[in-house]
Design goal:
The longest helix has 22 residues. The chain is mostly helical. It has a three-stranded antiparallel β-sheet, with helices on one face. It is 58% helix and 11% strand. The chain is built from eleven helices and three strands; from the N terminus they run H-H-H-H-H-H-H-H-H-H-E-E-E-H.
């Protein structure tokens, strides 16, 4: 546990909270004696995370409307982000899993890693209060915010679709043409086709982002205001 505490940058007064946060339901159900799963902590951690992130972006993005704040928060607390945070501190190696989950690669399962991140956050919150939890979360979130591009909030696909719809005989399709990188940090490449012609290519850390970038390129090609 000392190694994990060092990675978390937090020393627990009640180490049982940390142990509980690492106990998956498969292990608790298998052992059945003295072990409760981390599901209740996950529930609490989800709310603590939302409050911390919402508070920060509300205060630091005063001109951003509610809809865009919601999109930004969602990008910061989604399973993919939380899984990446967990992998960064090697949380998977400390999890207590049942034999079946262990055999099926549970230590690398994104949903389990994301849930564990929330459970550990709740354990820190219960042990040290909101400021300790905030300090833990923000070291990840601040870096993510630096990597967040305004493109996240622009819907180029809808803008392109509105232009194409003026000509009913035309149709737009998005085709995934490539992906590279490890599972937790993939880069996707997408082409947007007008009928059978490629009118834009885009890359992104998700298929949706790559589609948006392809649509943006198509709009630029068409001379549309973006």
């Amino acid at each position: 546990m000392e190694t994990l505490e060092q990675r978390l940058g937090y020393n627990f007064k009640n180490i049982n909270l940390l142990k509980n946060s690492l106990t998956h339901s498969s292990y608790a159900n298998e052992v059945r004696t003295g072990f409760s799963s981390n599901e209740r902590l996950e529930f609490l951690g989800d709310s603590v995370l939302s409050v911390i992130v919402s508070d920060y972006i509300y205060k630091h993005f005063p001109a951003m409307p509610e809809g865009e704040l919601t999109k930004l928060r969602a990008s910061l607390v989604c399973e993919k982000s939380l899984c990446a945070f967990s992998r960064e501190i090697g949380l998977g190696e400390f999890l207590k899993l049942g034999k079946g989950e262990e055999h099926n690669g549970g230590r690398e399962r994104p949903s389990i890693l994301a849930d564990a991140f929330e459970a550990v956050l709740a354990a820190i919150y219960l042990d040290g209060g909101m400021e300790a939890a905030r300090k833990h979360v923000m070291r990840f979130v601040l870096r993510e915010l630096k990597n967040t591009d305004d493109e996240v909030f622009k819907d180029y696909k809808t803008a392109l679709q509105e232009i194409i719809q003026r000509n009913p005989e035309e149709s737009v399709t998005y085709i995934l043409t490539g992906e590279s990188g490890p599972d937790h940090d993939k880069v996707f490449t997408v082409e947007v086709h007008l009928n059978s012609n490629v009118i834009g290519t885009g890359t992104g850390k998700s298929k949706k982002q790559a589609e948006q970038m392809a649509a943006k390129q198509a709009l630029i090609l068409m001379g549309a205001a973006i």
